[in-house]
Write the structure tokens for this entry.
Amino acid sequence: MAVALGNRSSRSSSTSSWRDFDFYLIATMLVLMAFGLVAIFSAYGLNTEAEGNAVQQGIFAVVGIVLMLVLASVDYRFLASLAIPFYVLGLAGLATVHVIGETIGGAQSWIQVGPVTVQPSEFAKMTTLIALATFVSSRGSAMRQPLNMVVASLIVALPAGMVLIEPDLGSAIIYMVMWFSVMVAARTRPIYFILGLLSLPAVVWFAWNYVMEPYQQSRLTISFDPDRDPMGLGFNIIQARIAIGDGGLWGRGLAGGTQSQYDLLSVRESDFIFSHVSSMFGFVGMVALMLSFILLLWRVLRVVDLARDQLGQCLAMGIFGMLFFQTFLNIGFNIGIMPVTGVTLPFISEGSSSLWTYLIAIGILQSILMGHRKFAFQRGL
Amino acid sequence: MARHKRMGFKQPGRTGRRGGVPESFDRVFISRRMLVAKTAIVGGFSALASRLGYMQIVAHEDAVEDAQGNTQYTKMLPAPRGLIYDRHGRLLARNEIAFQVEVVPAELPSLRTAPVERRRVLDRLIAELKLPDALVINPNDIPGEQKDEVYASIAQARGREGEDIAASVEAIRVAEEQNYLILLEDELSIDDAAKWRLKCRSTPGLRVMSLLDYQLGNTSSTSQNPVIVKTGVGRETAMSIEANKLHLPGVRIDGSVLVRRYPGGRSMSHILGFVGPVSEAEVNDTVNQAGNPIYANNDRSGKDGLEAALEETLRGQKGYQRTLRDAIGNDVGIVPGSEGFNQEAASGDSVTLTIDLELQTAASRALKSYIEHSTDDRKAKGNDKNKQWSNSGAVVAMDPRNGEVLAMVSYPQFDNELLTEGISEALWNELRDDKSGRPYFNRAIGSAQPPGSTFKSFLAAAALVEGTLRPESTFVCTGGLGIELAGDASRKNAHPCWNTAGHGAVDLDAAIKTSCDVYFYNVGTGTVEDLVYYDMEPESGATGNPIYGTEAKPFTGLGIDRIHRDMTQKFCFGSVTGFELGGEAPGLIPSQDWLMETYGQGWSAGQTIIASIGQGYTQTTPLQMATNTVALANGGTIYKPVVVRNTIKAPVVADGTAVAGPDAGPETIPAEPQEPLRRIEFNDGTLEAVRQGMANVIDGFVAQSDKLNGSVSYATLDVDGTQVQDPEWAWPRTNPPGIPEKDRIRIAGKTGTAEAEPTPGSNIEPLDENGKYNNQHAWFTCWAPYEEPEIVVSVLLEYGGEGSAYAAPCADAILRAYFETTGRRPRNQTVEFKGEQRTVSVLREDREPVLDIETAESLTFFKPSDTADTSGTVD
């Protein structure tokens, strides 16, 4: 059936091969999202108000899944053809933030669109990725030339810089990780890759000395020594540590531990949701959660493997890199081995922007999967 | 795993299954690159899992502890302190709910990360509460080698001189060891603050800062223990701070603090003492049955007086409650399952005192009036640079039927309410400073002075018990006697009578009435081998060179050993009485052993002679005087003086009012009948001779015919400045002129004019050119009515001069007040005397005692202006 459908190079969804849709990927993702709904319901206190928050997040999820299906049914190469408009749109969104943005938690990263608070840096991740992947794949082996590397770097550096000055260090780091991930899939000289890695300390040094305000520096360094200011900056980090440890092997149950119940742990519905669910479900639950993420990431890597063109590889690899690193960073700062940088836990944290961005990404991945069979048959003919 | 996959791609079968791969699309390339990604997944999540495992399994127990510590705390439920009433149910100590502003150092904005915010919070608080500036030294700002120099210059600037500078430097050096900041002055006036700010510019380490900054400077910035900023804050201020809670992180209002109030006025200060913040030692040491500390930080406990002595009765049982709190510090409930631990607060028991506040206040006013009168009157007679004027004294009034203390006054006085809210160093020093008369010192129990002639009554009673004296025993007084100096029989040691003209042959009754010294030399001095005395020629004792008769007479009296034994074991002199208040002085009855132990000297007969008239080493307190006078009044029974009448086990509600008054309900424990402490057995009627003598002392004041040589000057006492030499006006308050004989209240008493060394450190000469003392303490001890004693009053005016002139009329006023409280004398009585209406009542008609003797008008001395007819003078 898919064979019959895949015989045309149409961009319509009817021509996609739904047989190649990765239901493991979708199932894992749905499990994580369901887990997130429970966590949000609990984080708000398991009452009627909390129900409202969970329902709202459920609506976001449904909208996001529709978005995902739309993206899955669109040929990802069509998206690539719109790479430049998308990219410009993404930058415009980031610029808007600086003009009419709302300041939440010290960073000007949000704009209000109707009932929804939108974080343009999230959507700009995808537009930037499409632009980067399109450029890299279109250059092919020419990526070995330095000039193309410079262009590829600039494509990311521009939005990353804009995000950095919001200031949203976490998102800026995700942009950099995206660049590295796409470069992994690029046909380029390993030396650039190594040079990029080596430049990292320089970038950090520059950012530390010339971009970051002292209070931002404090927020980073406090992560590893929260006892320095236990009632100030270090407070939530300590509360997170206590909440996680308090969870123990099996957890404290649906209501979470005392840190959540007595409102000691802040942003437990978002950035610190991992600490909250750790106190709910304990070590066993968290290993299960992390295995779910590993399964998800493994299925994403499978897309890289199965992609039939370099564009697909670059897109999938970029998505993998972002998803992996954001997950690692979020859990990492929850458990105190990474600096607190204010990124969400994908599919779990409350909020629409992050969720929709990753659902769009999953849609693109499905599009790559569904497209690959068609490719194979065309080549086979 | 990754390795397996990598090899898998090289297998022809797999590539075949997936179909052909174009040359440009290098599968091997991408699978190699993917290896990086897969390694990252495995490595990354392994790291996360191991860290998580450590936190949730290895460190789990610690975290649980932290979790509970963070959210649960033991909330202390304050127990209202028991109330204190006088014997008629008037409140003497109560609790008042007050707002207390506290700062939790750990919750303030951090000095490091948010210094501006922190400053804003503190400045707001300082302005809102009008907190005073303090003068502080920060030793860390002073280079080590300059410290002594800087400290000395600061001490100099504070007005210290000479050795005080070195002492001040040393004190700072000591304080340096314990504190970060050192407090010099805790409440600077605006002018002083400005002056010191100027000085700060030129002095390293010296700072003028708010007291709050000083407190925080010496507290750990991570401390969760609140620092009390101010107690007793007004409601409006407290509400304003509470309303701005969000902008004042770390600031808390405690609206349940109970502040102690003492509505009984200053005269009660010495008895009640005060409450103050608990010491660290109290918090750590005392643990109740449930294993909880009795005190929490910032609690208050009794610090002195009855508040300290009755601490266990008054404080009650603090309650405990394991309480949950949220991030902002709001209580959200009781910890589930903690019911067994939680404990309700139980208020302390209240007590009723034996004190009658009305009498206490009247005694206080009388004491103050006569101290001032003594000074004014004697200054008018001649201002001698070697006179020390009276500015202090004490009164004790007791019920001779049971030892209840009806009034106990010490002067000067202080306001104990000022001390409950924490005391400044300056005030504390002032309260204990000689210059201000040491108002903190309770002279009624702590001032041990030679009793002088008041001692004679007790000596006579002891001699009667021992049988060395009989009521009819007679000795001849020629104005003094002399004993031979050891080793030089040609020279004699002179012991004149106070009346160098001599009293002639006197019996016991006359001896007490006239207070004849020679008589009591004979009563006190015992038979010692080779000891004889020679009579002094009348009036020769007044000169520096007395003339003696030739007849050698032996002593037949008690002797020092028996004096010591009887006074300490039969009477209750020379040791503390066991009164409830701390700070009692033991007084002293000297003995041979004591002198040897203390000074390494042997006892001499002359010292017994001096001891016989209550001089020399002998010392008694006003309380001892009253306690022992009780035995004379009631025929030989000594009671332990008591001031607590009973305990009321009625709950006290938080706002300080009692649920039940002292007379209400079955919970009132009736006063325990006082068991006599000692009973002195007199042979039938022998004590009566002493008692009769003491009654005659007062009768003598009243009856002109008995006035003795003009030397008993009581008749002159009661007109301010000008003297009334009119015997009809003697003892005018208790028994005013014209009183019918059937209404007369007979009073028995003994005066004492005790030779006094001047206050140490003053440059007053103790002796005049004739070897007589320049200064005297005025004593008077008495009871009334003579036949059926109801009250004993003992008065001491330190450096008050003659007991008969100043202490006796003071006692008269107090007796009058007492009989007004019992209704035996009217409250608003005036008598007509020589055409003038004179007020003789002591108490106010409105029954309410005037509490503040500092502002109350002094007792009238019948100045012309006090009389209805102001046209005449009173001579």
